[in-house]
Amino acid sequence: MPAELRDRRAWLAGGVILALLLVLYLTMRGEAPVAPPRPPPRSAPPPVAAAPEQAAAPTATPEGLKLHGITGAGAIIAMADGRQRLVAVGREVLPGLVLAENHPDHVVLRSGTSEFRLDFTGATTAGGTPASAPAQSGPASEAAIHAEALTYRLGLAPRRTGGRVTGHVVRAGARLPALERAGLQAGDAILRVNGSEFDQERMLELPWTIAQSERVTFEIERGGRPMHLSLERSGR
Q: By percentage, how much of the chain surpasses pLDDT 90?
């Protein structure tokens, strides 16, 4: 073996022996490899501030409202601007003001924890104090119009097409003086009043329409033939 190759192998063996001795020395001293530093703990997120409490909504009042009629499922109520609406029990008359109960001569309106009584002269609180100024009476007394509304409910039978009320038929023996003056007869089907389809809502509004209009027009069907009739205020 050449001397140069022996010297190289001797150097390699010596290096390996030195490395082993160094490892053995470090092990005997109990020194372990240094672990990498741990990351600092995450800070807790800042507390979430509680949402500010919202102020309670103001109680709605029936100021300016007036009762015009009572039905089995709701009531006809006049707004402060004179418009009339048929409102079902449980529905809002105004935002925040609900029709809660029906009674023979008045209804109960509820807003939050407050209750109001609304009758044909105006509204009062549950304790009886006025809630609004009484509205002016129309061309006919409210009591008379209310009674006439009940008469129309009894004297007119709904006519249905496809499950929908599309008119009302004058019942035999019904006593409806205003309609008789307009020329309507038993068996006539009223299809439109003043150009509007004569559905359930319009039927309930009919006495007020007649009482407040100078002229009321009727589109009817008699014996299968269409006809037009009218009622003038001067003729009532």
A: 20
